[in-house]
Design a protein that fits this description.
alpha/beta; 41% helix
Length: 557
């Protein structure tokens, strides 16, 4: 196929060529799996690292070779995975307590764990399962403290632990001090603390010395916790890779203001604290958006040889083969809002549009050169003209969300045919921030009617499982090289595997501070998903005609 050969030639001559060698220039199919949403008899109120391993043989059997995750960084108390407390640390709530080394030696802890597992099986909102973050954190924090009192000395004396600490102490030390202070200040933002709002390097070193010699071993326990996260997540990746399945992570472009990275003096200088990032007025917001997160000082990052970004990518590469670059347009230019001003009063920075292309190309080339992971860009929303051509020249795929892939400048705004999608892209039917397809279909009838017209089928008021299956088939046979959908889109194919109320299957509603945001749980347990024969049959039907041969490329509709 000439189109495929041309694309292959572009990729093989791009800066990311070496990153494609492991993954392969061929069609890839997979699922998006929000880790907090999965559960089974062994978990404690939230998904856990070891549960990922249970999906690997299921994916391999069905022809999926990508498991995509949302960010796994430790989050603040708003629970958003895009509001990390650290650019490095993984969230301890995902630790599988049953996998703790030597736990079987402590019968009282085993009994306590089994009791809590049973209690966490009960729904917390009527018949609807939700993640109760506060309850999960409190139980796991207390449980780990009891465990560390017995196993701390054994763990820190292992060569694996010492090797981990030596390789990652550049961020572990400061993060641990920040985490301890957060806990002592009842998890308030650092700017509301009584002391150490603006610490010096000497302050941090003194606190580190104090906590390192403290009889409570607070500092050691924070480091051990991250070591256990590292062990369990790297093991999950090893299990996946051994069966030809790749883990795709998610690296947020921006960092929460209330994070260790922004608080620490060694890295605070990399953020322009007088500005917040956001979005200009557009179809989604007449007044623009202010996200409340600081923008980067790229000049100071450059002077430091970008070591913070390079370290961030290095650590992420332990866990991921592929990664989603969130808000990739931010590497070209960012909408910044000066402190005290409204979002609509913001400005693009750099202000000179002629600088955007070189800035984006230089930043993304840096990321390619300093990581073994294959990047895929989230290139949604309003983009400068230079963005997508630059991504393609670098060998970075973009993202196609089918409900937004339309010819917006033409009368009737017709949907772009699936087979016309650029090969250098990933197709998906929905994202964590959008309505699932079933909800979108019913609540936006004019748009779903337009999609029916494009597919040459009759519109129905409710999305039938046959239509859902047909749309998923089209997504998997689009012109894109990657085809990855949220697992819940497949669960809609089998009665009993999804919540009846449309709103109960929504992961996040952007721009609204809802108690339900990021608390979504799949209705079935892991085993009820992986052992469901009707679900397997439907998925096989969806991708049965898709070629996995490198020479084939994606199929048309």
């Amino acid at each position: 196929m000439p189109e495929y050969e041309d694309f292959k030639s572009v990729i093989e001559s791009s800066p990311a060529a070496k990153h494609w060698e492991k993954i392969g220039i061929k069609d890839h199919h997979g699922i998006v799996l929000p880790l907090f949403s999965i559960h089974d008899e062994e978990s404690c109120g939230v998904g856990e690292f070891p549960l990922l391993e249970k999906f690997v043989p299921w994916c391999k059997e069905l022809g999926f070779d990508v498991i995509q995750l949302l960010p796994l960084n430790e989050v603040n108390r708003d629970n958003s995975p895009f509001s990390g407390m650290s650019a490095f640390a993984l969230d301890p709530m995902y630790i599988g307590l049953g996998r703790l080394p030597c736990l079987e030696n402590y019968y009282d802890l085993v009994d306590e764990l089994n009791k809590m597992r049973s209690e966490f099986q009960q729904p917390i909102e009527g018949d609807i399962r939700r993640v109760d973050y506060n309850r999960v954190r409190e139980f796991k924090r207390n449980f780990l403290h009891k465990y560390f009192e017995r196993e701390r000395a054994n763990i820190i004396n292992t060569p694996e632990y010492r090797e981990y600490f030596e390789a990652n102490q550049s961020w572990l030390k400061g993060y641990s001090v920040f985490k301890i202070l957060k806990s002592q200040n009842n998890w308030k933002p650092w700017w509301d603390w009584a002391d150490f709002k603006d610490p010096s390097e000497e302050d941090v070193e003194n606190l580190l010395g104090q906590y390192s010699s403290d009889s409570q071993c607070l500092w050691e326990d924070e480091v051990i916790t991250q070591f256990l996260c590292y062990q369990q997540m790297t093991h999950a990746k090893e299990v996946a890779n051994s069966q030809g399945v790749y883990i795709k992570g998610d690296i947020p472009f921006l960092i929460s203001r209330d994070s260790a990275d922004v608080w620490l003096p060694a890295t605070r200088k990399f953020f322009s604290m007088d500005y917040s990032a956001g979005a200009p007025p557009d179809a989604y917001s007449d007044d623009g958006q202010n996200w409340g997160v600081p923008v980067y000082d790229w000049g100071l990052l450059k002077e430091s040889s970008y070591w913070w970004w390079i370290e961030r990518l290095r650590y992420a590469s332990y866990f991921y083969d592929i990664y989603r670059i969130d808000h990739i347009v931010g590497f070209f230019r960012v909408w910044r809002v000066e402190e005290g001003k409204k979002a609509i009063e913001g400005e693009f920075f750099p202000q000179e549009s002629e600088l955007w292309e070189d800035q984006g190309k230089n930043h993304l080339t840096l990321m390619i050169d300093n990581s073994v992971m294959l990047p895929i860009g989230e290139d949604l929303g309003t983009l400068p003209d230079c963005c997508r051509p630059t991504l393609k020249s670098l060998g970075i795929c973009g993202t196609k969300v089918i409900i937004w892939e339309r010819e917006w400048d033409k009368e009737g705004k017709p949907f772009i045919p699936f087979e016309k999608y650029d090969k250098c892209s990933m197709t998906t039917v929905s994202t964590h921030d959008t309505e699932p397809l079933r909800m979108w279909w019913e609540r936006h009838p004019d748009e779903s009617k337009a999609l029916c017209k494009a597919m040459n089928v009759d519109w129905t008021e409710k999305l039938s499982q046959d239509y859902q299956k047909e749309i998923l088939k089209c997504a998997h046979q689009s012109g894109s090289l990657f085809h990855v959908n949220n697992l819940l889109e497949y669960l809609f194919l089998v009665p009993g595997l999804y919540w009846e109320n449309l709103d109960d299957d929504r992961i996040n509603v952007p721009g609204k501070l809802l108690d339900t945001n990021w608390t979504y749980c799949f209705k079935p347990k892991v085993s009820e998903i992986t052992e469901n024969e009707a679900l397997k049959a439907s998925i096989r039907e969806i991708i049965q005609n898709v070629s996995y041969e490198q020479e084939g490329g994606g199929a048309g509709m």
